[in-house]
Amino acid sequence: xxxxxxxxxxxxxxxxxxxxxxxxxxxxxxxxxxxxxxxxxxxxxxxxxxxxxxxxxxxxxxxxxxxxxxxxxxxxxxxxxxxxxxxxxxxxxxxxxxxxxxxxxxxxxxxxxxxxxxxxxxxxxxxxxxxxxxxxxxxxxxxxxxxxxxxxxxxxxxxxxxxxxxxxxxxxxxxxxxxxxxxxxxxxxxxxxxxxxxxxxxx
Length: 203
Ligand SMILES: [Zn+2]
Fold this sequence. Notes:
Blueprint: H1 3-16, H2 22-34, H3 36-44, H4 55-72, E1 80-84, E2 93-106, E3 109-122, H5 129-143, E4 147-152, E5 155-158, H6 163-178, H7 188-198
Parallel strand pairs: 1-3
Antiparallel strand pairs: 2-3, 3-4, 4-5
Helix pairs in contact: 4-5, 5-6
């Protein structure tokens, strides 16, 4: 097998993962150039391109996505991403936060502001980069949504995926679409449908 043929095979794998924005391509070509030996080894073993995206490259891509939202939402400016290979609770993503201030009461609901420390993403080698980005966008939506509880009989029940959460998630996805991070435009129904399938993994 010549190296030219191997390179073409690699490029076809890139098409398959739908990474089509210019800045993501920049990282991929940078990665291809500095990791060509590893790539050739993997191609010879007939593996998939995205399974060899190294943690540092994934980290760069996710940091770039987060930085777009840090410009818009000042209170998440110090939030960082922690990539983990084996999360304790097997979540695809987690938004680690503290509650601040007093509860605000509105009808049968009460809410508190949040201060987010970091977002944990499960870097499972079987996940595609698009899945990791969607998980990050989901967690960013948690980071900009207040903590909300609803009173049921005499108990306060946490509403982690409240209506407000989905409103914010749509907003985040719209910004992601405008910045060519994702290629699909979501409405509330298609989002809940997508998120429902993922929710058992995400937190
Ligand atoms: Zn969630």
